[in-house]
Amino acid sequence: MAALERRHVREVKLMPIKVERILFRIGEGSLAVTLPKAWVIYNRLKPGDKVEVIVNDGVTVHIKKKPGAGDEAES
User: What's the pTM?
Assistant: First the structure.
């Protein structure tokens, strides 16, 4: 990835990011949270891309592979 895109990333090793987010209301009963911009840029995500949210003791977000994307790294 180009150095220009990494300027948003504090540590690049395994992309450790710790941020605090505020939940906001969408519609009548749903809440939403935003993803860190550095993580989105690092993973080359754009509007319309899909992520998988796994909820157990915590919450994990995985990037869904795009059809024909090959062996791109997931985070």
Answer: 0.59
Task: Identify the H or E element spanning 60.
Answer: strand 59-63
Report d(CA 37, CA 53) in Å as an integer.
17
Residue type at position 57 = D
> What six digits make up the tokens of 27?
């519609």
**pLDDT tens per residue, the chain (75 residues)?**
444 455 555 544 566 778 888 999 999 999 999 999 888 998 899 999 999 999 999 888 889 887 666 555 555
- Token reading at 41: 């840029």
CB 36 within 8 A of CB 17: yes
